[in-house]
Amino acid sequence: MVKKKKKKPSRTDELRQLIQGLFYNNPKRTFNYKQVSSLLEVRKKTGRQKVQIILNELFESGYLTEVAAGKYKLLSRGSTLTGVVDMTASGSAYVVPDEENEGGDIFIPRNNMNQALNGDHVKVFMHARRRHRQPEGEIIEILKRKRDTFVGVMQMNRGLAFLVVDDRVMSHDIFIPAKGLNGVKDGQKAIARIVEWPERAKNPIGEIVDVLGDAGDHHTEMHAILAEFNLPYRYPQEVIDEAETINAEITEEEIKQRRDFRNVTTFTIDPVDAKDFDDALSIQKLDNGRWEVGVHIADVTHYVQPKTLLEKEAYERATSVYLVDRVVPMLPERLSNFICSLRPHEEKLCFSAVFEMDDDANIHNSWFGRTVIYSDRRFTYEEAQEIIETGEGDLKDEILSLDKLAKQLRDKRFAEGSVGFERVEVRFNIDEKGKPLSVYFKESKDANKLIEEFMLLANKKVAQLIGNNELDKGRRGKAKTFVYRIHDVPNPDKFENFASFVRRFGYEAMPKGTESVSSSLNRLLTEVQGKGEQNMIETLAIRTMAKAVYSTHNIGHYGLAFKHYSHFTSPIRRYPDMMVHRLLQRYLDGGRSVNEETYEEMCEHSSDMEQRAADAERASIKYKQVEFMKDHLGEEFDGVISGVTEWGLYVEIIENKCEGMIPIRDLDDDFYTFDEDNYCIVGRKYNRKYQLGDKLKISIANANLEKKQLDFALVDDKK
């Protein structure tokens, strides 16, 4: 038997081994093909070409990762990272890493979720990355559940019971054993808590913790929206009981400790349906010819003391929630609507910011402290607006003087770079059963802007007082810990994409000449006023902006162009304002700085609850839009494309701003592909394009209340 000679490795194999060894022995370094060729002494052109080919092959095989164009590094084997799950409706997900990851978010296929749910904090095992592919991985540990309770509709059949969860990104129904039903009936909305999830089980096992009522009932659905966003929808009885024990009497001893404004003309201006009056304004002419303007804010922290049940409940809620038909107050009604509310013809305790101003709205002196006031009049915005427009009515001199000062403050603010976003808000006229009868739009007029300017001024000056160490006569060094409302600068890449898009409509968003970005945005927002594309461009402009949040780390407020800004003016409905009141009084009294880390955690909690409340408000509006459009099935409307995704077109009806979707699968005249950079879908065969901002005629195809979803059909404009 003749032995076969062992095949000698080829030159290419040897080169590949050398290249692999180079990267293996230098795991933290990056090399391009020229550096590899030089280090391995490959000088011929053909040899260098081989190096380039081998590097590509090693990248394709997952041995190397491409750090930048043409620069490679050894891919760490078995690497893990942590992050937060962002689920999709299909059951797959993306994990947003806690720390910056060179490949971006990690895609998790449905079969690699391993029982993780939306919002969970997880550990991910990273798979080898392929060229031009999204990083992919597998969830190997759930570090912290985002939530364990879910709202949905009960479905019972043949002795089996499941809660079908409302959340579109919760792809698992919850199995409810007989012992966990707690009286719920088929078809009712309820809240279930997951109690266990066996390793190989498809569905988690849960128990019903609350029955909300019959699906479709107005109050049931509003409570379900609150529960969906993990927001409270009722007060614990012990908190209500504690509120009832509060003594509302204002003693002479308390008045002596405060600055007395009871004889100064004072009034409130609020929405017609408001009951919690946070703020009041006073104005009087001083002997020196200047104006004294008082911004008086309900002194909530006088009544809500630390370590009480009321304080704990206020912190947990962190904000009032404004749904389409109701307010879910942060504080029990006895406090929010009665004791603290600055109601007319009642003496009230306040925390005030008082400004001495000249006729040009220049501020010469400021004072901050606790006061007692007496509101002479309660105005609605409509009543105050009529006085501004006609020059006639109760307290006309005071209102007209404040309006003049407010307009000057506003002009100065915009001259200094404040950005003027004024989105139209959708509101509903609703009958006693909660059924929407009509849609109207809430606009901001001079009366609204009057209040806004003085609230902004108070918030700004309170933040400056602490941030600039003004209480310590401007001493150098770090300012005392405080709660700021911060807003970061726009992401440059997002803004460039936005600017490129609006050029298609004949606008320029980038700064011209010596313009700042904020000035260029204001110019653009002015130019689109009244145009068909106004709402779409304003929406996109807002999306380019960072979100405002609470923090002890002051970076300023970009949108307002303020170096210092806080929230001081709404403690009845915002917990951060209560924090600010306490800190301000502490520092006015000469107290030491508080623990920054503790307050930063409180700020993060408040920002999170604020976002949840905003999401719930949008969901309630969406629900009423769908309910309103149910009576218009088959009717045709003019719309504008408000969003473009790979699964369809979102269209906003022009006359009522109700938004629905045309699924891409229903556009059967061509095969359409999604062009993310240009906010459009394009037909492959006929090259027909549907782009953000395009006007369309649609008909109402379906209104699904459970999913809060409107489906539209495209009306053929060729007919």
What Rg do the Cα atoms give? 31 Å
Q: Stretches where pLDDT falls below 50 for ≥5 residues?
A: 1-6
Strand order, sheet with most strands:
13-20-19-16-15-14-21
> What's the quaternary structure here?
single chain
Count of helical stretches: 17
Distance between the termini: 84 Å
Helical proportion? 25-40%
* Structural domains: how many: 6
Structural class by SSE content: alpha+beta
Beta-strand level of the residues, as a percent range?
25-35%
The average pLDDT is: 89
Biggest sheet character? 7 strands, mixed
- Inertia-based shape: globular
Number of strands: 33
Description:
The structure is a single chain. With 719 residues, this protein is α+β, with helices and mostly antiparallel strands. It has 6 domains: 11-74, Winged helix-like DNA-binding domain superfamily/Winged helix DNA-binding domain (Arc Repressor Mutant, subunit A), CATH 1.10.10.10; 80-144, Beta Barrel (OB fold (Dihydrolipoamide Acetyltransferase, E2P)), CATH 2.40.50; 149-215, OB fold (Dihydrolipoamide Acetyltransferase, E2P); 240-444, no CATH class; 492-542, no CATH class; 633-714, OB fold (Dihydrolipoamide Acetyltransferase, E2P), CATH 2.40.50. Helix content is 30%, strand content 27%. It has 17 helices and 33 strands. The longest helix has 34 residues, at 596-629.
